[in-house]
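Researcher: Structure prediction, please.
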Amino acid sequence: MQTGTLISLALYFVLMLAIGLYAWRKSTDSSEGYLLGDRSLHPAVAALSAGASDMSGWLLLGLPGALYAAGLVEAWIGIGLFVGALANWIIVAPRLREQTEKLGNALTIPEFLANRFPDKALALRLTSAVIIVVFFAVYTAAGLVGGGKLFESSFAGLFGDTGMSDYMLGIWITAGVVLAYTMIGGFLAVSLTDFVQGCIMVVALVLMPLVVLMDDDGAGAVTATLNAIDPSFLSLTAGLSFVGFLSAVAWGLGYFGQPHIIVRFMAVRSVADVPKARNIGMSWMGVALLGAIGVGIAGRAYVEQNGIILDDPETIFILLANTLFHPLITGFLLAALLAAIMSTISSQLLVSSSSLTEDFYRLFLRKQASERETVNSGRVFVALVAVAAIIIARDPDSQVLGLVSNAWAGFGAAFGPLILLSLTWKRMTGAGAVVGLVTGAVVVIAWIALGWNAEFMGGPGVYEIIPGFLAALGAIVGVSLKGWKQINASPK
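Model: Predicted structure follows.
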């Protein structure tokens, strides 16, 4: 059985590497080519690349696992994300595509912010780069945890005595393939592989719930089984407090500040292509989220009906893939999981590398670095960030959704208000940008450290993105208005 599965996965890996080689021949001669694909992405590629890099392993592991354990009430996370993604495409995408090219042809988010607020350029580039690298190391680790869980659950003992656990072997294999095509082909390789991976993911997420429903004699049998477990399992509101509702839908706020997603807006072919990309991307996302919800709900019914013991809810997708399908199809489904994981990891590694290259290496160490040297230094930084993520991911008890939620909140709070206001509010100042950036990141880190995301004032925890986002928004507005008053009050 495992042989057929491994054949499918091997073919998938070969396809990813082939795309990397193609991109290497097309767009790695310059910094703009390696880091932004020469701003020439087709709307469909930009849309699915944004979606696939967003919907990491949590889409096939974390979200179905949460629904499996707690019921349909966890779907509010998906609803909040859908609304947030739509707002991101409408508000941020066209403005960011236009302004990044107009303001010095910025290749990274920190560079755009520096060009937008030249009086605080150095502080913004340094602070932004530090936040990006720190939170992306955690975010990338979440993806590697997913890869480790996949190999631990599906191929236990298959590779013999390698001197490391199946979990760590899975991490190294996942990281190795991603590093290969990302270092070779840069942004174009990441975007093209994202497109292919997005297609694989959505097919798998539609296929699996349908097969479970057919195996369980239809939706009626699934509903009856779940109602027998808990009559409120299929309720969107049972046990949902106001704080819990806000914490779930607040995930949508994070979209405005995710560098690995919004960088796709910078690379789309033209502003005129943005609406077409938005429609493609949102259609893909809606189908993918519904499929993930179906996996969690139908998977719980299947496990209960067949008396299966599942220790880790986040592996329900892997269990169903291994149980219900022919090995070759299982390999395709596991490739979909790897696609979700690898599409996000590659995007995060490249954005981290971009910041380290453009906002540190060229800014302080080698201002006159050639294009070839810049591209090669980017490849080195990709590898260094990957090593840091591997170290963080070593704990096999790590929860994918937990790690993702922390990193998502960090980016959403630090960059979300900053990006929104820098694109839409002319009175925003450089000082406000710096203070808001630091405030958002610090509040999120402090909230997590104090445990207030788990329990707050004797009640349920409040998702850290809410206080972080509001604090950053208030800091930007307050400091910017104070700066404008001082300017207007000064002698002319």
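Model: The chain has one domain: 2-397.
Researcher: Thanks, that helps.
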